[in-house]
Write a structure and sequence with these properties.
The complex is a heterotetramer of chains A (488), B (240), C (111) and D (81). Chain A contains 21 helices and two strands. Chain A has 488 residues and is mainly alpha-helical. Chain A has a two-stranded antiparallel ribbon. Chain C has a single domain, classed as Helix Hairpins. Chain C is elongated and about 60 Å long. The chains are: A mainly alpha (488), B mainly alpha (240), C mainly alpha (111), D mainly alpha (81).
Chain lengths: 488, 240, 111, 81
């Protein structure tokens, strides 16, 4: 299917043309950015629509000896997240970003191309290359504002993600040495003969490499620093996409190459759920003490990613559906929260929670969106967060992780406390007059669009669930995925 | 008290690394003697049909630029991102490389040296599919010319000879050229980056003009890497 | 040929030790270079078959060395080189801001 | 014969790596980096891998050492002055 390659090439071409437009044709910069984002949205919808019978696109027409791109419902979900988040963020940052405009858009487009490449490719080394592309460009975005904290966050992010990449590279090399091929389907076929000890060692390297990038508890300390001083629209893409593409790659490698029964036998499912439970408890507690708004949202992102890990590591069909639905919901909810924080920062450079005291009376609609998104992320009934969390709790109970279900409910109240703290400061009366720079329509429209999605997906969950219900068929038993990739 | 703390911290780290080493040793030992039926069907295919399918003598280049050309596209993007990061980290004020002022001998030899570097770089790029080398290595050798100028004649002269904007634009043109040659595959009805499969005239192997699109991909990557590394080097020098 | 695999393991763990335990940032980046070189050495060791010839097939050879890991090694060298360049650039900026190359001081300075 | 040279090179590689890591002065450890790279290039040539050998020689032991020297130039000199 032709559009699968265009999803990766179009952002790259736009990034290169922006590079040229910096020097020669200066004035076509904004129309180029907006038009390519709109074309990209149309392309993504085209690919998502025919993602159900998964189709394979082999780059260079080398059927199985070259690199193949595969569009299946799981990657279709991620393309849906890119489609939902990318256009609002681009429209938002055209007005929001003042310094280094050209570099910001070059890096955003290259990062999106890297994530789309990671999500679509069915080749292990290609997955590593696109992982490197997306993490290097997102590290550049962290350092964009060149403040002291920003540069330090970028340095920590670079060190940690390169260390993770080297472990993934070591595992890829050993997989090639054992199986002789790099195509994911052929590797999983060859992996059946490999003894248990070596297979679990390889799995350990993969898990360690990807967990370093996702940032579960013992390895999370670098993450909040990258959120502190980076341009806030980038935080939307980072927490919505960059961390999740590492989760995607981990799940694809584990479920397709190692297979669900090997995961169960080696006990990784129990470890994963346990690790997730610890992560979100500690993350919630840490989030409680934060005064900086971005750091608070960063810790809450770590907690939400832990919910997703629990959902995906439960290993049943319900768990997969719940986990994937929570990936979609978290991307939208966190996106809204970060966009509202960006508007507060844009209008009166508010960074800490105290600075946004009494802003509700100045921005009634935006504060309402903030309240909706934070209630959704906590998981209260009418909103989308509740449904996905409920699916995860149900799946955890079904497959016997009673302690995980119990702690998720405890975690809900923990997160309720620190979000309420923010909402209360938002709505407390503030006597002193605040000089406010009015955010234009181009800033508030994307925020309201994402905020309304919180409600729409909450009230009508069948809209995204139509796509998400098809995911487990190609993930749980990897035979289906392999048949399509090899047969084709 | 502090000394014990420092020693215990150091021992903890050494213990961690030694345990990782032992773990790796067992794994490598197992993998090495497990390797009974060394499955190399993919590389045997590349070796046996490589020359006919892609026309390139150097199988590594045919793997890099035809079988797995998508990797090279991703890798060229990594290089472009690194060049863009370094070019925007640089403050406006220039700072010359502090060091000993070079004597006349150095500046004379660089003038003699530059044509040889240019020829070597061109050779590595154009003969990428016949001899070891290729776009990346040739590009780096060509990037050595502005680097030598920067060292011997200060940054201003090198910037005067190779304008920074020109370098940025030539880097982007190289990248866009690579993608457009890939799109050529789509125009001729086959898939993206299709060289061997698309009915592109492969010429007979061993000639200079052979191997279909691989030489052009090599040239594009050569331009891109040359300009990119010149930007990387000059911005590292200029960082005050 | 066994020593080569042992050398790869030693270099890998040496690289990780340098990254973990060093105070100076430049030494830490040097640890990454060592780590990357050990992985490239592992790739080339995997590609070598005893008695094989280099993958330049100007005429038919009977045993040829495996070309795929060599292509992967080329890609890894370029990626590792550019990541090291970015790390060093950020190190210079950090040094200009904080006037110190000591990793621990940086963590405390952030406050 | 080749195996003897190969094993000796491997040992020499390890010695250079250990020396590079455990010297106190940064400048000497940066100087040993190209030696480390050069030995790797010879090992790659013995292992019949000309492509990565050139790339390693030019990029990994050539340019990366240059970047290290510039970084030291920018950071070390101020401390001495």
């Amino acid at each position: 299917m032709e559009a699968a390659v265009w999803v990766i090439i179009l952002p790259l071409l736009t990034a290169f043309f922006i590079g040229i437009s910096k020097v020669y044709v200066k004035k076509i910069f904004v129309p180029l950015v907006i038009s390519s984002a709109i074309i990209y949205l149309y392309l993504l919808i085209l690919v998502i629509n025919n993602s159900y019978p998964p189709n394979v696109y082999s780059v260079g027409a080398w059927r199985l000896i070259g690199i193949n791109l595969m569009v299946d419902p799981f990657s279709g979900l991620f393309l849906l997240i890119i489609a939902l988040l990318f256009l609002p963020v681009i429209i938002f940052s055209v007005k929001y970003i003042k310094s280094y405009k050209h570099e910001y858009f070059i890096f955003t487009y290259i990062m999106t191309a890297g994530i789309a490449g990671m999500v679509l490719t069915a080749d292990l080394f290609n997955l590593y290359v696109f992982l490197e592309v997306s993490s290097l460009s997102s590290c550049a975005l962290v350092a964009l504002k060149k403040t002291n904290k920003g540069l330090e966050g970028a340095y920590k992010y670079l060190v940690m993600s390169t260390l993770g990449s080297f472990f993934i590279l070591l595992a890829t090399i050993l997989t090639y040495y054992l199986t002789g091929t790099l195509n994911i389907a052929e590797i999983s076929l060859e992996f059946n003969e490999i003894p248990f000890k070596i297979k679990s060692a390889l799995m350990a390297f993969f898990v360690f490499g990807y967990v370093l990038k996702i940032g579960l508890i013992p390895l999370h300390f670098w993450l909040p620093d990258t959120y502190e001083d980076s341009p806030i629209p980038y935080n939307v893409l980072s927490s919505g996409l960059v961390m999740k593409s590492a989760v995607y790659a981990l799940i694809k490698v584990l479920y397709i190459i190692f297979g669900i029964d090997f995961l169960d036998k080696s006990g990784l499912l129990q470890i994963g759920v346990f690790w997730g439970v610890i992560t979100f408890i500690v993350a919630h507690l840490l989030a409680f003490q934060q005064s900086n708004l971005s750091r608070l949202l960063a810790y809450s992102s770590i907690a939400q990613i832990a919910y997703i890990m629990i959902g995906l590591f439960v290993g049943t069909e319900g768990g997969l559906i719940g986990g994937n639905f929570h990936i979609l919901n978290h991307a939208i909810m966190k996106g809204t929260l970060f966009l509202v924080t960006a508007i507060f920062y844009y209008s009166l450079s508010a960074v800490n929670i105290e600075d946004i005291k009494g802003l509700a009376y100045k921005f009634p609609i935006l504060s309402f969106t903030f309240v909706v998104a934070s209630l959704a992320i906590v998981g209260l009934p009418p909103f989308n967060g509740f449904i996905s969390k409920w699916l995860i709790v149900e799946a955890a109970l079904e497959s016997g992780f009673v302690y995980a279900a119990f702690f998720i409910l405890v975690g809900t109240f923990l997160s309720l406390t620190y979000y309420l703290k923010v909402i209360i400061t938002l709505y407390t009366k503030n006597d002193k007059e605040i000089v406010v720079e009015e955010p234009g329509l181009s800033l508030s429209l994307p925020t309201i669009f994402l905020g309304s999605l919180c409600i729409v997906f909450g009230v009508v969950p069948s809209l995204p669930l139509r796509l998400i219900n098809k995911i487990p068929t190609f993930l749980l038993d990897n035979g289906e995925y392999i048949r399509v990739l090899l047969g084709g | 008290m502090n000394r014990i703390n420092v020693i215990s911290k150091k021992l903890y780290k050494i213990g961690l690394v030694v345990s990782l080493a032992i773990f790796l040793l067992f794994i490598f030992y197992d993998i090495h003697n497990l390797e009974s039926n060394s499955k190399r069907y993919l590389s045997d295919h590349y070796i046996s049909e490589g020359v006919q399918e892609t026309g390139a003598i150097n199988i590594v280049t045919s793997v890099l630029y035809d079988y797995r050309a998508f990797d090279t596209l991703g890798e060229a993007t990594v290089l472009l991102t690194a060049a863009a990061i370094l070019s925007f980290l640089v403050p406006i004020t220039k700072d010359k490389m502090r060091g000993t002022p070079f004597t006349i001998i150095v500046s004379q030899t660089t003038q003699v040296f530059i044509p040889f570097l240019a020829i070597l770089g061109m050779y590595l790029i154009f003969f990428g599919h016949l001899a070891p080398g290729g776009g990346f290595v040739g590009g780096v050798v060509i990037a050595l010319i502005p680097i030598l100028l920067t060292i011997t004649y200060r940054v201003e002269f090198s910037e005067y000879k190779f304008k920074p904007d020109k370098k940025k634009v030539s880097e982007d043109i190289g990248a866009i050229g690579f993608v457009l040659i890939g799109l050529l595959g789509i125009l001729t009805g086959s898939n993206f980056l299709a060289n061997g499969q698309a009915n592109v005239s492969l010429g007979d192997a061993g000639e200079l003009i052979s191997a279909g699109l691989i030489p052009y991909l090599n040239i594009m990557i050569g331009i891109k890497v040359g300009a990119g590394l010149a930007i990387i080097f000059n911005s590292l020098i200029k960082e005050k | 040929m066994q020593i080569s695999y042992i050398a790869v393991i030693i270099l890998f763990c040496l690289g990780i030790y340098t990254i973990i335990s060093n105070k100076n940032i430049i030494k830490m980046v040097m640890g990454f270079t060592i780590l990357e070189s050990s992985l490239i050495l592992l790739l080339i060791l995997i590609s070598y078959t005893p008695g094989g010839t280099a993958p330049i097939l100007d005429r038919q050879y009977e045993i040829v060395v495996d070309p795929i890991p060599q292509a992967l090694a080329l890609t890894t060298i370029v990626i590792g080189g550019s990541v090291t360049a970015v790390m060093l650039a950020v190190t210079i900026k950090l040094y200009k801001r904080y006037r110190t190359l000591n990793v621990d001081k940086l963590r405390k300075l952030r406050g | 014969m080749i195996d003897l040279i190969f094993n000796m090179l491997m040992i020499f590689l390890l010695i250079t790596a250990f020396f590079m890591v455990f010297t106190k002065d940064i400048l000497t450890s940066v100087i040993t980096l190209p030696i480390f790279g050069a030995i790797l290039v010879v090992i790659f040539v013995i292992l019949q891998a000309p492509g990565p050998a050139i790339a390693e020689a030019v990029i990994a032991s050539g340019l990366t050492t240059f970047f290290f020297v510039i970084t030291i130039n920018k950071t070390e000199y101020e401390q001495n002055e």
